[in-house]
Amino acid sequence: MIIKAKVHGHVVSLVPEKQDRFEVTLEEPVTVRAFIRDHIGVNPMVFGAVVVNGTTRRLDHVLDQDSELLLLSPIAGG
Question: For the chain, N or C: smaller number of CB within 10 Å?
Answer without folding.
Answer: C
